[in-house]
User: Fold Protein meaA from Nocardioides caricicola.
Amino acid sequence: MTEKDRPWVMRTYAGHSTAAASNALYRTNLAKGQTGLSVAFDLPTQTGYDPDSPLARGEVGKVGVPVPHLGEMRRLFEDIPLTAMNTSMTINAVAMWMLAMYQVVAEEQNPDLTPEEVAAQLAGTTQNDIIKEYLSRGTYAFPPEASMRLIADMIAYTVHQIPKWNPINICSYHLQEAGATPTQELAYALSTAIAVLDQVKDSGQVSDDDFEKVVGRISFFVNAGVRFVEETCKMRAFVQLWDEITQERYGVQDPKMRRFRYGVQVNSLGLTEAQPENNVQRIVLEMLGVTLSKNARARALQLPAWNEALGLPRPWDQQWSLRLQQVLAFESDLLEYDDIFDGSHVIEAKVAELVEGARAEIDRVQAMGGAIAAVEYMKSELVSSHAARRARIESGEEVIVGVNKFETTEPSPLTADLDGAIMAADPEAEKTARASVEAWKAQRDETEVAEALAALAAAAKTDANLMAPTLVAARAGATTGEWAATLREVFGEYRGPTGVAGAVALSMAGSAGAELTAVRERVKATGDELGGRLRLLVGKPGLDGHSNGAEQVAVRARDAGFEVIYQGIRLTPEQIVAAAVAEDVHCIGLSILSGSHMELVPDVLDGLREAGLGDVPVIVGGIIPESDGRRLRELGVAAVYTPKDFGLTEIMGGIVDVIRRANDLD
Assistant:
């Protein structure tokens, strides 16, 4: 028998409300046997805004922890020795800033060591993949070229100063959530990796000798869906393709440096609000896809909780997910064998098919000039793939147990008390974070901060590595918003493509096609009664960049005959109201998945009333607890849709009903 394999690093993706609350959660999770930390930051932190920014309203502490300054980074890791920890930070646009603050906190924890000695001991990962932010997640802060420069600077800095750090975690996770097929997930993630490595090479900051080390520190963050045989083959295809690319394109000789190193969060998109107890077996099957094959096994794994489609998981729910990993690693015999798929002709054939398809798609992206140049193409392809998947679910061709088949159910004891089945983020988090920033600014040396930020801006206008001035700004006490605003001033603002205009129209067969035709006729008839085509404004207020749902609503509404106004993500309530006035719309659909609906939706309703459009119906979609849905309807929202409402054509019919009621047509 071969020697038993070591288990992967076990993490729980965690962070909420405040740094102090998150710190307590981390220490509890570590005591339960978790072997690494995975930090979830809130949306203002991810997009480079302080809690007192107008754009941060309603978003502070909701989907992660606010870290607006060094004092909060200290609190986040209090009593956790960073030189002995492996920390993953899910941060992209402001990754350089977060790594700088993390390093400074580690220096403060080790006053007897020089900064260089501390840096040499730090181990962990910053996600730092900006291309997938333009394609799927939406938490970018700067334009593509400037963002790629920040990534190259960080990679060059870490390879020399923090050699145990993974400076980038190329992230196919959100690509799958945005609709990517396994072939697209392979191709677009590897195209991103090529773009990053080419950028580092072209920057001239890393010698040829050190470049092999850079390749060796590139890691990936992958999604695993419930089709675990296909997912196993996808991972084996990743291993094969990465080995080829690093050897043939970059001449990496050392096989260890060519190893495909990846961590996983299994698929949260596939978790259902209906019969949520089924999510537990989904999570287990998804975990198998990335652990069964020894030669393509994940290096780190974090699992969502069964109730993530309902809201924020409680500590007990996260513990359940950690125990799933521990049972597989320590009770089963999985780690006692060599790769159980070697020699399987079925697996080999599927891997070969995926490799061939991915190579062709990588070549297509490279022919367009690489991943940055092909962002708009890739975005449209993902929106089209996602629309096709939604259509398969609605027609019943793709079965989702408890959703479109086997819907009969006993009452679930897990959700008997729906509001108790999830955790609420601290409603005082925003006030606490604002007070924290105010207190922080009151005690720092303003002259030192101003000088540090001026030096950062000056360096950004040259081709100097920006990690050094960023560390100076962190030590001086600058805030996350100030660091990002300084660079926005130099690099400019940017809005990513929506992919909606280029998405292919669907031809739906059978009863699903008949249903869409019927809705199309009602859209046209209602438009005729109102004297023109029905106009639907789809808006995403706040900082939530999960745009997949909004894009699918926009695409289906267009297919149903609406004139659709969709301007992408990150709009203020004022901008949404202004668009409603300018476009003279018949209905407004708001999409919010970050939990900020109770703050932002009333702001839109108030703005519409002030603009004289109080009679224009507003519908809302998102992860919205039942009690919040009732409250929104009381405030005047015409309809509330949550993930259990998967029928997009049915939703289109509901929008027609809402418009007809608002205009007294029935």
